[in-house]
Protein: Amino acid transporter transmembrane domain-containing protein
Amino acid sequence: MSKDSKNDTDIEYDNNDPTPHEALGTITDHNDVFGEISEDGPNYRNVGWLGTVALMMKTQIGLGVLSMPLVFATVGLVPGNILLVAMAGITTWSDYMVGIIKLRHPDVYGIDDVGRILFGRIGYELFGAAYAIYFTFVAGSAMLSISISLNALSTHAICTAGFVAIAAVVGFMFASIRTLDRIGFLAWIGALSIIIAVFVVTIAVGLQSRPSEAPQSGHWESDYKLFNTPTFTEAISAVSTLVFTYAGTPAFFNIVAEMRQPLMYNRSLVICQVTVTAVYIIVGTIVYYFCGSYVASPALGSAGDTVKKVSYGIALPGLIVSCILFIHLSAKHVFVRILRGSDYLTANSIIHWATWLSSTFGITTIAYIIASAIPVFSSLVSLIGAFLGTFLTFQPYAGMWLYDNWKGSRTLRWQFGVVWSIIILLLGTFLMVGGTYGSVVGIRDSFVKSGGSSPWSCADNSNST
Structure:
C-alpha cells in the first residue's frame, strides 16, 4: 500500500512493477482520475482556489447576464428577482453537492461518472453524451455572441458567417491549451471584461433620456412593471433562461478534478455564487427599470450605437474566453474518456497530442456548424437551458444524495434531505419538459413572425430584440 501525501484520500495501487513514468524517475503524483502525473507531462492537478473562482464565474457569467433584463421584462421586476434568487439557491445546493460527491467518490471526473454510479453503463453513456452535447451547444452559442460583438464593433463589415468562422478559429487555438490552470488567467480577464461591459451599459441607460429601442420623439417614460402577466410559454422560457445562467454546474466536476486542494472548493463556490447573483440582480433590475419593454437582447444594445460599440469592445475578451473554455471542457471530456487508464493521458507522446488536438478540433467544428445553422441568440439560449442545462443541473445531484444517504440514520435531517431531493427531481423534470416545450413554441412563433434567419446567414445579428 502506498500513501500519497499530496492527495486528499489514500490511494492503493500495485507497485511491484514500475510504470513507464516511475522507470524514468519522473512520477510526481498519483490521482484516481488522471493516474500518474509526471514532470514530463501536463499537470492536471494545478488549479488554485482563486483560479477555481475565475473558472466557475466564467462558466456562469457570459451569455446569461446579457439576457437577464429581458427575463425581468417578461415576468416583471418582483417575480424576476424572486425567481433569480430561488434559482441561485437551488443551483448552489447542486454545486455544493459536486464537492461532496468528489470527496466521497475520488474517481469521479465528470457527470458521466455520476451516471455510472447511479445507472451503470447506460447512465455513463447517457450522462456523458448529454454533457458533451450541452457544452458543445454552449460553445456554439458563444461563437454566435462573438459574431454579434464583431458585427456591432465593425458596423457589420463582413458576412456574419465569416465572423462566426473567425470565432471558431480563435476558440480552437486557445482551447487547445491542455490544462485548466493555464486557462485560469484568461478566465479572470473574461469574467471581469463581461462584468465591466454590462455595468457600462447599466450606467449608460440610467443617464440617457430614453433607451435606443424606444420612440425617439415625444414624451417617454419607462413602462417597467413590478408584476407582468406572461403566457405559460413566455414564463417557462424566461425561467429556462435563468436555469441557463446558472447551468455551469456540470463543469464544476471537471474544475474540482484539476484543483490542487479540492477541500478549498466550497470557498471558491461561495465567492462565485455571491458575485454572480449580485451582478445578475443589479444589471437586470437597473437596465429593465430604465428600459422597460424596450430592452434589447443581448442587453448591450440597449443604450444606443456608441455605448453598444464601447460595451461590446470591452465584453469581446469575455465572449472569446467563454468560447475557449466551453470548447476546452467538451474536448477534455472526450479526451479523458478515450485515454483514461492509459499512460498516454498524462505523458507527452504522438498519441497524446493527436488525440487531444483531434478532440478540440472536432468539438470546434461541431460548435461552428451549430452556431452557423441556428443563428438566433435568445432562442438558442432558452432551448439549451431548458433541455440539457436543466437535466445536468438538477436531477443528478438529488439522485446522488439519495444514493449516498439512503441507508443513513432516519433522523429529521435525513428526512428533510429525502424530501428536498425528491422536490429537486420533480422540479428539474418539470422545468426540463415545460421549458423545452416553451422554447420550441417560442422558436416556432419567431419563425412565423419574422421568417427566422437562414443557415450561414450574412445578415447583421447585432441588434436582435
In short: Residues 111-154 form the longest helix (44 residues). Strands lie at 27-31, 35-38. The first strand starts at residue 27 and ends at 31.
